[in-house]
Amino acid sequence: MVSSNRDQFTSKIGFILAAAGSAIGLGAIWKFPYTVGTNGGSVFILLFILCTLLIGLPILMSEFLIGRRSQADAVSAFKKEAPGKPWFLAGWLGVIVSALILSFYGVVGGWILSYLFRAVTFQLNGGSEEHYGELFSSLIANPWEVIFAQAMFMFITIFIVQSGIKGGIERAGKWMMPALFIFFILLAIRSLTLDGAMEGVKFMFVPDWSYLNMETLLNALGLAFFSLSVGVGAMITYASYLPKTETITSSAFNVAWMNIAISILAGLVIFPAVFALGYSPAQGPGLVFIILPAVFEQIPMGSVLIIIFFILLLFATLTSSISLLEITVSVFVKDNYEKRRSRAWIVGLVIFLAGIPSALSFGVWSNIFIMDKSIFDFIDYITANVGMPIGALAFSLFVAYYYKTNVTKAELNLPNAGYWLWRTIVCVIAPIAIITISLYNLFA
Protein backbone atom coordinates (compact mmCIF):
# COMPACT_ATOMS: atom_id res chain seq x y z
CA MET A 1 0.00 0.00 0.00
CA VAL A 2 1.43 3.36 -1.03
CA SER A 3 1.71 5.83 1.79
CA SER A 4 -0.74 8.71 1.58
CA ASN A 5 2.12 10.93 2.75
CA ARG A 6 4.23 10.13 -0.28
CA ASP A 7 5.75 13.26 -1.77
CA GLN A 8 4.42 14.21 -5.20
CA PHE A 9 4.87 16.79 -7.91
CA THR A 10 2.28 19.50 -7.43
CA SER A 11 1.69 19.99 -11.15
CA LYS A 12 2.13 18.26 -14.47
CA ILE A 13 4.37 21.06 -15.74
CA GLY A 14 6.60 20.66 -12.67
CA PHE A 15 7.01 16.96 -13.44
CA ILE A 16 7.67 17.58 -17.15
CA LEU A 17 10.30 20.24 -16.45
CA ALA A 18 12.05 18.04 -13.87
CA ALA A 19 12.00 14.99 -16.16
CA ALA A 20 13.14 17.07 -19.15
CA GLY A 21 15.96 18.49 -17.03
CA SER A 22 17.05 14.97 -16.14
CA ALA A 23 17.11 14.02 -19.82
CA ILE A 24 18.79 17.17 -21.16
CA GLY A 25 21.88 17.53 -18.99
CA LEU A 26 25.31 17.37 -20.54
CA GLY A 27 23.98 15.15 -23.32
CA ALA A 28 22.19 17.99 -25.09
CA ILE A 29 24.68 20.79 -24.49
CA TRP A 30 28.05 19.04 -24.30
CA LYS A 31 27.75 15.72 -26.11
CA PHE A 32 25.21 16.64 -28.82
CA PRO A 33 27.27 19.45 -30.43
CA TYR A 34 30.54 17.55 -30.59
CA THR A 35 28.81 14.35 -31.78
CA VAL A 36 27.04 16.33 -34.50
CA GLY A 37 30.35 17.96 -35.40
CA THR A 38 32.16 14.64 -35.82
CA ASN A 39 29.28 12.97 -37.71
CA GLY A 40 28.72 15.43 -40.54
CA GLY A 41 26.01 17.70 -39.17
CA SER A 42 22.52 17.69 -40.70
CA VAL A 43 22.12 14.00 -41.58
CA PHE A 44 23.10 13.06 -38.03
CA ILE A 45 20.60 15.57 -36.59
CA LEU A 46 17.81 14.15 -38.75
CA LEU A 47 18.62 10.59 -37.65
CA PHE A 48 18.88 11.73 -34.01
CA ILE A 49 15.39 13.26 -34.12
CA LEU A 50 13.90 10.17 -35.77
CA CYS A 51 15.59 7.82 -33.31
CA THR A 52 14.49 9.93 -30.34
CA LEU A 53 10.84 9.85 -31.43
CA LEU A 54 10.67 6.30 -32.78
CA ILE A 55 12.90 4.40 -30.32
CA GLY A 56 13.74 6.53 -27.29
CA LEU A 57 10.23 7.86 -26.71
CA PRO A 58 8.52 4.43 -26.45
CA ILE A 59 11.14 3.29 -23.90
CA LEU A 60 10.64 6.54 -21.96
CA MET A 61 6.90 5.85 -21.92
CA SER A 62 7.63 2.38 -20.53
CA GLU A 63 9.63 3.79 -17.62
CA PHE A 64 6.94 6.37 -16.92
CA LEU A 65 4.38 3.56 -16.90
CA ILE A 66 6.29 1.52 -14.31
CA GLY A 67 6.86 4.51 -12.05
CA ARG A 68 3.40 6.07 -12.19
CA ARG A 69 1.64 2.70 -11.79
CA SER A 70 3.78 1.53 -8.85
CA GLN A 71 4.14 4.90 -7.06
CA ALA A 72 7.42 3.54 -5.71
CA ASP A 73 11.19 3.89 -6.13
CA ALA A 74 13.10 2.01 -8.83
CA VAL A 75 13.64 -1.09 -6.64
CA SER A 76 10.33 -1.19 -4.76
CA ALA A 77 8.45 -0.64 -8.03
CA PHE A 78 9.46 -4.06 -9.32
CA LYS A 79 8.93 -5.72 -5.95
CA LYS A 80 5.41 -4.31 -5.90
CA GLU A 81 4.52 -4.98 -9.53
CA ALA A 82 6.19 -8.41 -9.73
CA PRO A 83 6.27 -9.81 -6.16
CA GLY A 84 8.52 -12.82 -5.69
CA LYS A 85 10.16 -12.31 -9.09
CA PRO A 86 13.80 -11.29 -9.73
CA TRP A 87 12.82 -8.18 -11.73
CA PHE A 88 13.79 -5.97 -8.76
CA LEU A 89 17.43 -6.70 -9.67
CA ALA A 90 16.94 -4.43 -12.69
CA GLY A 91 16.00 -1.67 -10.26
CA TRP A 92 19.14 -2.25 -8.20
CA LEU A 93 21.21 -2.21 -11.38
CA GLY A 94 19.76 1.21 -12.18
CA VAL A 95 20.61 2.47 -8.68
CA ILE A 96 24.22 1.28 -8.93
CA VAL A 97 24.68 2.63 -12.45
CA SER A 98 23.16 6.02 -11.57
CA ALA A 99 25.47 6.34 -8.55
CA LEU A 100 28.50 5.50 -10.72
CA ILE A 101 27.44 8.00 -13.37
CA LEU A 102 27.01 10.71 -10.75
CA SER A 103 30.46 9.89 -9.32
CA PHE A 104 32.16 11.11 -12.52
CA TYR A 105 29.36 13.49 -13.54
CA GLY A 106 30.16 15.46 -10.39
CA VAL A 107 33.73 15.80 -11.65
CA VAL A 108 32.54 17.37 -14.92
CA GLY A 109 30.19 19.58 -12.89
CA GLY A 110 33.23 20.72 -10.96
CA TRP A 111 35.05 21.60 -14.18
CA ILE A 112 32.06 23.73 -15.18
CA LEU A 113 32.09 25.53 -11.82
CA SER A 114 35.82 26.21 -12.23
CA TYR A 115 35.26 27.66 -15.70
CA LEU A 116 32.29 29.70 -14.47
CA PHE A 117 34.41 31.16 -11.66
CA ARG A 118 37.11 32.11 -14.16
CA ALA A 119 34.50 33.63 -16.48
CA VAL A 120 32.86 35.68 -13.72
CA THR A 121 36.28 36.99 -12.57
CA PHE A 122 37.23 37.69 -16.21
CA GLN A 123 40.14 35.23 -16.16
CA LEU A 124 38.99 33.48 -19.36
CA ASN A 125 41.16 35.33 -21.82
CA GLY A 126 44.02 34.58 -24.14
CA GLY A 127 42.35 34.50 -27.51
CA SER A 128 43.65 31.22 -28.90
CA GLU A 129 42.65 27.58 -28.99
CA GLU A 130 46.13 26.65 -27.74
CA HIS A 131 45.71 28.85 -24.65
CA TYR A 132 42.41 27.25 -23.70
CA GLY A 133 43.75 23.79 -24.41
CA GLU A 134 46.57 24.42 -21.94
CA LEU A 135 44.10 25.89 -19.43
CA PHE A 136 41.85 22.83 -19.60
CA SER A 137 44.77 20.42 -19.29
CA SER A 138 46.19 22.25 -16.27
CA LEU A 139 42.79 22.49 -14.60
CA ILE A 140 41.91 18.79 -14.78
CA ALA A 141 45.42 17.85 -13.62
CA ASN A 142 45.22 20.04 -10.47
CA PRO A 143 44.08 17.66 -7.68
CA TRP A 144 43.10 20.33 -5.16
CA GLU A 145 41.03 22.39 -7.56
CA VAL A 146 39.17 19.48 -9.18
CA ILE A 147 38.28 17.86 -5.84
CA PHE A 148 37.20 21.17 -4.29
CA ALA A 149 35.08 22.03 -7.36
CA GLN A 150 33.60 18.51 -7.40
CA ALA A 151 32.70 18.91 -3.71
CA MET A 152 30.99 22.24 -4.37
CA PHE A 153 28.97 20.77 -7.24
CA MET A 154 27.89 17.79 -5.14
CA PHE A 155 26.99 20.14 -2.27
CA ILE A 156 24.59 22.05 -4.53
CA THR A 157 23.08 18.80 -5.83
CA ILE A 158 22.58 17.35 -2.34
CA PHE A 159 21.14 20.62 -1.02
CA ILE A 160 18.42 20.57 -3.69
CA VAL A 161 17.59 16.86 -3.35
CA GLN A 162 17.41 16.88 0.45
CA SER A 163 14.60 19.44 0.23
CA GLY A 164 12.29 16.88 -1.40
CA ILE A 165 10.15 16.93 -4.53
CA LYS A 166 8.03 20.06 -4.03
CA GLY A 167 10.58 22.10 -2.11
CA GLY A 168 13.69 21.09 -4.02
CA ILE A 169 13.48 19.18 -7.30
CA GLU A 170 10.26 20.66 -8.68
CA ARG A 171 11.15 24.21 -7.65
CA ALA A 172 14.63 23.93 -9.20
CA GLY A 173 13.22 22.54 -12.45
CA LYS A 174 10.60 25.27 -12.71
CA TRP A 175 13.18 28.05 -12.86
CA MET A 176 16.21 26.27 -14.32
CA MET A 177 14.49 24.88 -17.42
CA PRO A 178 12.75 28.12 -18.54
CA ALA A 179 16.05 29.92 -17.92
CA LEU A 180 17.78 27.40 -20.19
CA PHE A 181 15.34 28.06 -23.02
CA ILE A 182 15.38 31.86 -22.68
CA PHE A 183 19.15 32.27 -22.44
CA PHE A 184 19.81 29.74 -25.19
CA ILE A 185 17.49 31.63 -27.53
CA LEU A 186 19.33 34.87 -26.73
CA LEU A 187 22.73 33.25 -27.29
CA ALA A 188 21.52 31.65 -30.54
CA ILE A 189 20.32 35.04 -31.83
CA ARG A 190 23.73 36.56 -31.05
CA SER A 191 25.54 33.67 -32.70
CA LEU A 192 23.36 33.86 -35.83
CA THR A 193 24.12 37.58 -36.33
CA LEU A 194 27.86 36.94 -36.81
CA ASP A 195 29.33 37.34 -40.29
CA GLY A 196 29.59 33.90 -41.86
CA ALA A 197 27.15 32.32 -39.39
CA MET A 198 25.00 30.89 -42.19
CA GLU A 199 27.71 28.32 -42.93
CA GLY A 200 27.02 26.87 -39.50
CA VAL A 201 23.28 26.85 -40.21
CA LYS A 202 23.89 25.03 -43.50
CA PHE A 203 26.04 22.51 -41.66
CA MET A 204 23.11 21.78 -39.35
CA PHE A 205 20.23 21.79 -41.82
CA VAL A 206 21.48 21.15 -45.38
CA PRO A 207 22.04 17.38 -45.68
CA ASP A 208 25.36 15.93 -46.77
CA TRP A 209 24.12 12.47 -47.73
CA SER A 210 27.63 11.03 -47.83
CA TYR A 211 27.30 10.69 -44.03
CA LEU A 212 24.20 8.50 -44.33
CA ASN A 213 25.71 5.19 -43.25
CA MET A 214 25.37 2.57 -40.54
CA GLU A 215 27.94 4.17 -38.25
CA THR A 216 26.12 7.53 -38.28
CA LEU A 217 22.79 5.77 -37.67
CA LEU A 218 24.15 3.82 -34.71
CA ASN A 219 25.77 6.94 -33.23
CA ALA A 220 22.49 8.85 -33.60
CA LEU A 221 20.52 5.98 -32.06
CA GLY A 222 22.95 5.74 -29.17
CA LEU A 223 22.84 9.48 -28.45
CA ALA A 224 19.04 9.58 -28.69
CA PHE A 225 18.74 6.62 -26.37
CA PHE A 226 21.13 7.89 -23.72
CA SER A 227 20.18 11.57 -23.96
CA LEU A 228 16.66 10.73 -22.77
CA SER A 229 18.12 9.41 -19.51
CA VAL A 230 16.51 5.97 -19.86
CA GLY A 231 18.01 2.80 -18.46
CA VAL A 232 18.97 3.89 -14.93
CA GLY A 233 15.54 4.23 -13.31
CA ALA A 234 15.52 8.03 -13.22
CA MET A 235 12.25 8.23 -15.12
CA ILE A 236 10.73 5.42 -13.04
CA THR A 237 11.63 7.37 -9.92
CA TYR A 238 10.30 10.73 -11.16
CA ALA A 239 7.10 9.17 -12.53
CA SER A 240 6.49 7.55 -9.13
CA TYR A 241 5.89 11.06 -7.78
CA LEU A 242 3.30 11.76 -10.50
CA PRO A 243 -0.35 11.56 -9.37
CA LYS A 244 -2.34 8.82 -11.10
CA THR A 245 -4.70 11.46 -12.43
CA GLU A 246 -1.99 12.74 -14.78
CA THR A 247 -1.41 11.21 -18.21
CA ILE A 248 2.02 9.78 -18.93
CA THR A 249 1.93 9.64 -22.73
CA SER A 250 1.69 13.39 -23.23
CA SER A 251 4.31 13.94 -20.52
CA ALA A 252 6.72 11.64 -22.36
CA PHE A 253 6.12 13.48 -25.64
CA ASN A 254 6.80 16.81 -23.93
CA VAL A 255 10.08 15.54 -22.44
CA ALA A 256 11.18 14.19 -25.84
CA TRP A 257 10.49 17.40 -27.80
CA MET A 258 12.10 19.57 -25.11
CA ASN A 259 15.23 17.41 -25.30
CA ILE A 260 15.30 17.82 -29.09
CA ALA A 261 14.63 21.57 -28.87
CA ILE A 262 17.45 22.24 -26.37
CA SER A 263 19.83 20.11 -28.45
CA ILE A 264 19.01 22.11 -31.62
CA LEU A 265 19.32 25.39 -29.73
CA ALA A 266 22.73 24.31 -28.41
CA GLY A 267 23.76 23.62 -31.99
CA LEU A 268 22.52 27.06 -33.10
CA VAL A 269 24.60 28.67 -30.37
CA ILE A 270 27.76 26.77 -31.19
CA PHE A 271 28.02 25.97 -34.92
CA PRO A 272 27.29 29.41 -36.45
CA ALA A 273 29.94 30.91 -34.16
CA VAL A 274 32.43 28.10 -34.84
CA PHE A 275 32.07 28.48 -38.63
CA ALA A 276 31.97 32.28 -38.54
CA LEU A 277 35.34 32.38 -36.77
CA GLY A 278 37.00 29.69 -38.83
CA TYR A 279 37.18 26.78 -36.41
CA SER A 280 36.50 23.14 -37.25
CA PRO A 281 33.24 21.64 -35.91
CA ALA A 282 34.90 18.21 -35.59
CA GLN A 283 36.80 19.06 -32.41
CA GLY A 284 35.38 16.25 -30.29
CA PRO A 285 34.73 16.49 -26.51
CA GLY A 286 36.93 19.59 -26.14
CA LEU A 287 34.47 21.70 -28.16
CA VAL A 288 32.84 23.24 -25.05
CA PHE A 289 35.91 23.70 -22.85
CA ILE A 290 38.55 24.57 -25.45
CA ILE A 291 36.95 25.87 -28.64
CA LEU A 292 33.97 27.82 -27.28
CA PRO A 293 35.98 30.09 -24.93
CA ALA A 294 38.21 30.91 -27.91
CA VAL A 295 35.11 31.64 -30.00
CA PHE A 296 33.52 33.90 -27.38
CA GLU A 297 36.86 35.70 -26.98
CA GLN A 298 36.46 37.05 -30.52
CA ILE A 299 32.80 38.09 -30.23
CA PRO A 300 31.75 41.56 -29.01
CA MET A 301 30.55 41.22 -25.38
CA GLY A 302 32.05 37.73 -25.43
CA SER A 303 33.19 37.95 -21.80
CA VAL A 304 29.54 38.40 -20.75
CA LEU A 305 28.17 35.78 -23.14
CA ILE A 306 30.64 33.15 -21.91
CA ILE A 307 29.37 33.69 -18.35
CA ILE A 308 25.80 33.11 -19.52
CA PHE A 309 26.86 29.99 -21.43
CA PHE A 310 28.57 28.35 -18.46
CA ILE A 311 25.63 29.26 -16.21
CA LEU A 312 23.41 27.41 -18.69
CA LEU A 313 25.78 24.47 -18.78
CA LEU A 314 25.78 24.39 -14.97
CA PHE A 315 21.95 24.43 -14.89
CA ALA A 316 21.76 21.59 -17.39
CA THR A 317 24.31 19.53 -15.49
CA LEU A 318 22.54 20.11 -12.18
CA THR A 319 19.14 19.02 -13.51
CA SER A 320 20.67 15.67 -14.46
CA SER A 321 22.74 15.26 -11.29
CA ILE A 322 19.63 15.93 -9.20
CA SER A 323 17.78 13.06 -10.87
CA LEU A 324 20.77 10.73 -10.55
CA LEU A 325 21.04 11.38 -6.82
CA GLU A 326 17.26 11.12 -6.34
CA ILE A 327 17.27 7.56 -7.74
CA THR A 328 19.51 6.33 -4.92
CA VAL A 329 18.08 8.55 -2.19
CA SER A 330 14.50 7.45 -2.95
CA VAL A 331 15.48 3.78 -2.51
CA PHE A 332 16.89 4.40 0.97
CA VAL A 333 14.13 6.80 2.02
CA LYS A 334 11.11 4.92 0.62
CA ASP A 335 8.15 6.59 2.39
CA ASN A 336 10.12 7.51 5.53
CA TYR A 337 10.35 11.18 4.60
CA GLU A 338 11.63 12.49 7.90
CA LYS A 339 14.92 10.75 7.02
CA ARG A 340 15.24 12.30 3.56
CA ARG A 341 17.67 15.03 4.62
CA SER A 342 20.10 12.74 6.45
CA ARG A 343 19.93 10.02 3.78
CA ALA A 344 20.52 12.57 1.01
CA TRP A 345 23.67 13.88 2.69
CA ILE A 346 24.98 10.38 3.49
CA VAL A 347 24.36 9.03 -0.03
CA GLY A 348 25.73 12.20 -1.61
CA LEU A 349 28.90 12.04 0.51
CA VAL A 350 29.50 8.40 -0.43
CA ILE A 351 29.07 9.20 -4.14
CA PHE A 352 31.41 12.19 -3.81
CA LEU A 353 34.10 9.99 -2.23
CA ALA A 354 33.56 7.37 -4.96
CA GLY A 355 34.16 10.09 -7.55
CA ILE A 356 37.54 11.21 -6.22
CA PRO A 357 39.47 8.54 -8.22
CA SER A 358 37.80 9.85 -11.39
CA ALA A 359 38.72 13.42 -10.42
CA LEU A 360 42.38 12.41 -9.96
CA SER A 361 42.56 10.27 -13.10
CA PHE A 362 43.82 13.18 -15.22
CA GLY A 363 46.51 14.20 -12.72
CA VAL A 364 48.22 12.31 -9.90
CA TRP A 365 46.50 9.02 -10.85
CA SER A 366 46.86 9.47 -14.60
CA ASN A 367 49.13 6.41 -14.73
CA ILE A 368 46.36 4.08 -13.49
CA PHE A 369 44.45 2.28 -16.23
CA ILE A 370 41.62 -0.26 -16.29
CA MET A 371 41.15 -2.04 -19.63
CA ASP A 372 43.50 0.55 -21.17
CA LYS A 373 41.26 3.38 -19.95
CA SER A 374 41.69 6.02 -17.26
CA ILE A 375 39.51 5.58 -14.18
CA PHE A 376 37.20 8.36 -15.39
CA ASP A 377 36.89 6.90 -18.89
CA PHE A 378 36.39 3.36 -17.56
CA ILE A 379 33.48 4.39 -15.32
CA ASP A 380 31.97 6.35 -18.22
CA TYR A 381 32.46 3.39 -20.56
CA ILE A 382 31.09 0.68 -18.27
CA THR A 383 27.96 2.66 -17.35
CA ALA A 384 27.13 3.85 -20.88
CA ASN A 385 27.99 0.68 -22.77
CA VAL A 386 27.01 -2.01 -20.27
CA GLY A 387 24.89 -0.77 -17.37
CA MET A 388 22.45 1.56 -19.13
CA PRO A 389 21.70 -0.75 -22.09
CA ILE A 390 21.04 -3.73 -19.80
CA GLY A 391 18.79 -1.59 -17.60
CA ALA A 392 16.81 -0.18 -20.51
CA LEU A 393 16.48 -3.63 -22.06
CA ALA A 394 15.14 -5.02 -18.77
CA PHE A 395 12.68 -2.12 -18.29
CA SER A 396 11.28 -2.37 -21.82
CA LEU A 397 10.98 -6.18 -21.69
CA PHE A 398 9.26 -5.98 -18.31
CA VAL A 399 6.59 -3.64 -19.63
CA ALA A 400 6.25 -5.51 -22.92
CA TYR A 401 6.04 -9.07 -21.61
CA TYR A 402 5.14 -8.95 -17.90
CA TYR A 403 2.23 -6.51 -17.92
CA LYS A 404 -0.96 -7.72 -19.53
CA THR A 405 -2.21 -5.89 -22.61
CA ASN A 406 -5.26 -4.46 -20.85
CA VAL A 407 -2.99 -2.94 -18.16
CA THR A 408 -0.63 -1.15 -20.58
CA LYS A 409 -3.55 -0.02 -22.75
CA ALA A 410 -5.27 1.56 -19.76
CA GLU A 411 -2.08 3.20 -18.46
CA LEU A 412 -0.99 4.68 -21.79
CA ASN A 413 -4.47 5.63 -23.03
CA LEU A 414 -3.37 5.60 -26.68
CA PRO A 415 -5.48 5.12 -29.82
CA ASN A 416 -5.48 1.49 -30.93
CA ALA A 417 -3.02 2.04 -33.82
CA GLY A 418 -0.72 4.09 -31.61
CA TYR A 419 -0.80 1.47 -28.89
CA TRP A 420 0.18 -1.39 -31.21
CA LEU A 421 2.94 0.72 -32.73
CA TRP A 422 4.31 1.36 -29.22
CA ARG A 423 4.02 -2.32 -28.33
CA THR A 424 5.82 -3.42 -31.50
CA ILE A 425 8.67 -1.04 -30.72
CA VAL A 426 9.14 -2.07 -27.07
CA CYS A 427 8.65 -5.78 -27.77
CA VAL A 428 10.83 -6.12 -30.87
CA ILE A 429 12.46 -3.01 -32.33
CA ALA A 430 13.81 -1.40 -29.12
CA PRO A 431 15.43 -4.60 -27.78
CA ILE A 432 17.12 -5.20 -31.15
CA ALA A 433 18.28 -1.56 -31.24
CA ILE A 434 19.64 -1.72 -27.68
CA ILE A 435 21.55 -4.95 -28.33
CA THR A 436 22.90 -3.57 -31.62
CA ILE A 437 24.11 -0.35 -29.98
CA SER A 438 25.73 -2.28 -27.13
CA LEU A 439 27.56 -4.69 -29.43
CA TYR A 440 28.67 -1.83 -31.68
CA ASN A 441 30.02 0.21 -28.75
CA LEU A 442 31.74 -2.81 -27.22
CA PHE A 443 33.43 -4.16 -30.34
CA ALA A 444 33.68 -1.27 -32.81
TrEMBL record:
Transmembrane segments: 12-30, 42-66, 87-113, 146-165, 177-197, 217-241, 253-279, 299-332, 344-370, 382-403, 424-443
Main location class: membrane
Superkingdom, natural source: Bacteria
Cell compartment(s), UniProt: Membrane
Keywords assigned: Membrane, Transmembrane, Transmembrane helix, Transport
Gene Ontology cellular component annotations, sorted alphabetically: membrane
PROSITE patterns (UniProt xref): NA_NEUROTRAN_SYMP_3 (PS50267)
CDD domains: SLC6sbd_Tyt1-Like
InterPro entries, A to Z: Na/ntran_symport, SNS_sf, YocR/YhdH-like
Membrane topology per record: Multi-pass membrane protein
Any matching Pfam family: SNF
Name under which the protein is recorded: Transporter
Organism of derivation: Caryophanon tenue
